[in-house]
Amino acid sequence: MLNADDGPNVSVVGDTYRILASGKQTGGAFATIDMLVPPGGGPGPHSHPDFQETFYVIEGEIEVKSEVSTYIAKKGAYVVIPKGGIVHCFKNKTDTLAHLLCTVVPAGLEEMFITIGTPIDAGVFLPPPAMDPESIGKLIKIAEQYGQKVFPPDFLG
């Protein structure tokens, strides 16, 4: 059980993610991450063939792009990224904060966030890190260790 402010918080690409349930707590079955995505925030195109990812939009909205479609997910929307490796990304294209609840089955994504993220206090937002070629190479290598593939920012158009 977690209180409202419990769980590690990390800054990942300028977003603030709080790990609510990790694979260590669920025997690897799943992980749940509370995501705060500021205007302009969200990850670039990526894929992960070995786990399913879902998002429930608590507040705000995000644009979800994939190889299949583009969808504006507003408050109350539920988005499923199935196993299989479809390339996808999401972005907050509004001027207000988006609040998402993300669950991955099986767990593992949360460990990547902890590895690449910067520990922060709840509610703190750091600017996105500079993405020079060395930083991009490091991110790609870490992502691959966690079963993900990262694609160029313009991959989905």
Give the gist of this structure:
The protein has 157 residues and is α+β, with helices and mostly antiparallel strands. The chain contains three helices and twelve strands, in the order ββαββββββββαβαβ.
How would you characterize this protein structure?
The structure is a single chain. By secondary structure, the chain is of the alpha+beta class. 16% of the residues lie in helices and 38% in strands. It contains three helices and twelve strands; from the N terminus they run E-E-H-E-E-E-E-E-E-E-E-H-E-H-E. Strands 8-5-10-3-2-1-11 form a seven-stranded antiparallel β-sheet. Strands 7-6-9 form a three-stranded antiparallel β-sheet, with no helix packed on it. Strands 4-12 form a two-stranded antiparallel ribbon. A hairpin with a 2-residue loop joins strand 1 and strand 2. The radius of gyration is 14 Å and the shape is globular. The N and C termini lie far apart (41 Å). The mean pLDDT is 92.
Primary descriptors:
157 residues; alpha+beta; 7-stranded antiparallel β-sheet; 3-stranded antiparallel β-sheet; 3 helices; globular
Count of individual beta strands? 12
Strand order of the largest sheet: 8-5-10-3-2-1-11
Rounded mean pLDDT score: 92
Share of helix, binned: 10-25%
Give the overall shape.
Answer: globular
CA-to-CA gap between the ends? 41 Å
- Uncertain segments: none
Strand content: 35-45%
**Which H/E pattern describes the elements?**
EEHEEEEEEEEHEHE
Task: Please give the largest β-sheet.
Answer: 7 strands, antiparallel
Question: What radius of gyration results from the CA coordinates?
Answer: 14 Å
| Discrete helix count | 3
Class from secondary-structure proportions: alpha+beta
